[in-house]
Amino acid sequence: MKPHPLLGGLTPEEFLRDYWQKKPLLIRGAMKDVGPEIDRDWLFRLATRDDVESRLIEFRDPQWHLENGPFRPSRFKRLPESDWTVLVQTVNHHVPHIDRILWQFDFIPFARLDDLMISYAPPGGTVGPHFDSYDVFLLQVGGKKRWQISSQEDTRLVEGSPLKILQTFEAEQTFDLEPGDMLYLPPRYAHYGVAQEPGMTYSIGFRAPTAQEMASQFLVYLQDRVCVDGMYADPDLSYSTEPARIRDTMVKQVAGMLGKITWNDETVADFLGHYLTEPKAHVFYDPPEQALEFDEFVAQLATDALVLDPRSQILYTNDMLYCNGEVLDDEEQDVGYWQQFANVRRLEPSGFSETMLDVLYEGYLSGYWLFVPAVAQ
Ligand code: SIN
Ligand code: CO
C-alpha cells in the first residue's frame, strides 16, 4: 500500500493502526494546494444565511462570548482587530473545491465523514481550550495558528460559560501550524488553538452518533415498517371486583405480541443505508433550471460524466443502494457502476441499463447529480 498524500509518509493502514482514535498526528505540508482562496468577506456572507450554521466566539477578559448565526452583515463591521473567531459549518455544501477536499479523506468510510467547517480568526482568535467528542483533522489555510494539545483526563468544564471550556488545561505539546500543515486529533483529546497571524482553519469532522441517537432513529425506522399480525382477544376473561386493574394476563398477551417485532443484520443494514444518507435539516437540492428531456439526457450521458452534488451521498450495503435517504433501484449488471459512483462521486459515460438510465434521469431532475465534461479517453 502506498503512503496517502494527506498522511505525510504514512499509508492508510499505518494511520488507522497507530493513530485513528488513538493519538494525535501532526502532518507538515499535508495539503500544498487547497484550491482557490476562500475570501474572508464571502465566508462572513455565508454566516448571514439562515440555512447555514455559524458562530462567533470572542474572548473579552474575563469572559467568553458566543453568538450564533445567522448574523446581520453589519455585525462583522463592528469587530475588534483581534481575539475573535468566526466559524461556519458545512462549507463543503457551498463550494465545489471545498467539497473535493472533504472526499479526499477517503481512507475513512464515507459513512463516518461529516462536514468541513471553516473558521477565520485574526491574531488572538481562539475558541478556548476544549475537547470534541469526534475525530477531527485541522488543516491550516493561510496565516498561522499555535495549537497546544494535551492527553489530560481532567475534562471538567468551566461552569456558567456559553462554551465548553476546560477548567484546567495543561499543554503537553505545542505546534505552530502554517499553511498546508494539518493536525489530527482523536475524540476527547484536549486542544487549544490561538491564531498568531490572520488565517483560516479547515476542520474535517467525523460523525459518531451516540448509541442513544441510533436507538431512537432505529425505532423511528421500525415504526414505519413494523407489521405484526393478530388482535387482542380474551375469550377466557374471568370476573373481577377490580375493573380498574391492568391484569397480568393482559400484560403477558401484549408482551407476546410485541415479542414478534424482530430484526436482524439485514434490517440494521437497511436502517443504516437510509439513516446515513438522509440529508441534514436545511438541505434542499437544486433541480436543473432548464431540465433536459429524457432523450437529450441519455444523449449527453454518452459523452459527459456525472458528479454527485456536494449535498448528495450514495452509500451501499451487500444488497442495496441508498441515495439521500432513499433506496435506488439497481440491476445486477450496473452494480459496479453504482458502486464506482458512490466511491469516487463521479460516473464516466458507459453502457448503462435502461433501469440505470431511468434512475440517473430521476436523480438528475431532483438535482442529486449534474453533468461535467468526461475525462478524455
Ligand atoms: C478553530 O477552528 O479554531 C477551532 C476548531 C476546533 O478546535 O475544533
Ligand atoms: Co475542537
Number of domains: 3
User: What's the alpha carbon Rg, rounded to whole Å?
Assistant: 26 Å
What is the CATH superfamily classification of the largest domain?
A: Cupin
The largest pleated sheet is described as:
8 strands, antiparallel
The small molecules bound here are: succinic acid, cobalt (II) ion
CATH architecture designation of the largest domain? Sandwich
Q: Say what the CATH topology of the largest domain is.
A: Jelly Rolls
Question: In percent terms, what proportion of residues is strand?
Answer: 15-25%
Helicity, in percent? 10-25%
Q: What is the helix/strand order?
A: HEHEEEHEEEEEEEHHHHEEEEHEHE
* The CATH top-level class label of the largest domain: Mainly Beta
The outline comes out as globular
Total beta strand runs: 17
Distance between the termini: 27 Å
Secondary-structure content class: alpha+beta
Strand order within the widest beta sheet: 1-9-6-11-5-4-2-3
- Count of discrete alpha- or pi-helical segments spanning 4 or more residues: 9
Mean pLDDT: 96
Low-confidence stretches: none
Description:
The chain is an alpha+beta fold. It is built from 9 helices and 17 strands. The strands form 4 sheets. It has an 8-stranded antiparallel beta sheet. The protein has a 3-stranded antiparallel beta sheet with strand order 8-7-10, with no helix packed on it. The model has no long low-confidence stretch (mean pLDDT 96). Residues 130, 132, 191 line the site of cobalt (II) ion (CO).
